[in-house]
Amino acid sequence: MNHISKLPNIETTIFTVMSQLAAQENAINLSQGFPNFPSDPKLIELVQQALRENYNQYAPMPGALILREAIAEKMELLYQRDYNPATEITVTAGATQAIFTIISAFVRPTDEVIIFTPAYDCYAPAVEVHGGKVIPIQLKGKEFSVDWNEVRSKITTKTKLLIINTPHNPSGTVLSKADMLELSSILENTNIILLSDEVYEHIIFDGAQHQSAALYPKLAERAFITASFGKTFHNTGWKMGYCVAPKALMHEFKKVHQFNVFSVNHPMQIGIGKYLKNPKNYLGLPAFFQRKRDYFLNEIKDSRFTWKPSQGTYFQVLSYENITDEFDTEFAKRLTREYKIASIPLSVFNTNKEDHKLLRFCFAKTEETLAQAAKILNRI
């Protein structure tokens, strides 16, 4: 049998490549973004309690009500935006499933979708597999800033969707209030849907406020906001996330969601729903992760790498331009093989694979792991 691939240019993701190489080489893995410390025992106990209480059958299709209500309360507390738990919130199998389902529900063949590169690698394939056309816009310079005039120039009558990600993976930068107001002005009076990937909303540093699309009425009226409990509560393997959107948009989302997933892990929803009722369980996360960022950067202050401190996420981008002229993918692999430390090269996320001599390191690790990694980086 002969088949024409719908994704002919897709290869194994860089996350899989680098994690497999790290395992083969017994290297410290700072490549893939997952914590190596446990979740809060209180959250684990709440999920175990839900298991014992027999929440072991299908959850309601949009999610357990206790969790949807807790999400609504969190959105109101943080962003002063009222989302109806019955019609505007859906619990998903991680943020990636939410993103894929949004694209499935709205993108038709020949529709155009604007993404900013370097971009998380699930965006473009989801567009392409549905026959859409990706319109990439490269973020500028070491600041990874948006050229909003370029954004204006790329919008056409075929533009269906625009995707933003803040705090941004892989760069660790954040969109400012000025950025969001500019975006709001550009999208006003269009039919373009905004997909705002905000999975790192609680991991933002130096006293900054996360600029959620929910804070801006003219954006919120056209926006899907996706979020991740895995990123938030150190349990990426649970694959638990959610999205919020106005009723009319969410109605279309649910049409696809019910046949794609229908519902997600019920006892975990009950446990997280109870855990979210205490805002302290997420309000303390910025300080928690900033301590890890600061510890890591202090430990490598005498290295030959250079950097701008991450503004958000649990990733730190390091420049190696003072060390070697090697292409970043080759240098990342050599570091893993020869120095036993794994990272992620940024060129794989860029338009035309542009190489700016940058590697991404995950600092959501124990201090012991970060100290071991710093010793290696300091002798390169």
TrEMBL record:
Residues 26-376 form the Aminotransferase class I/classII large domain. Keywords: Aminotransferase, Pyridoxal phosphate, Transferase. It is an enzyme of class 2 (transferase). Signal peptide: none annotated. GO terms for molecular function: kynurenine-oxoglutarate transaminase activity; methionine-oxo-acid transaminase activity; pyridoxal phosphate binding. Its cofactor is pyridoxal 5'-phosphate. Belongs to the class-I pyridoxal-phosphate-dependent aminotransferase family. This is Methionine aminotransferase. It comes from Kordia antarctica.
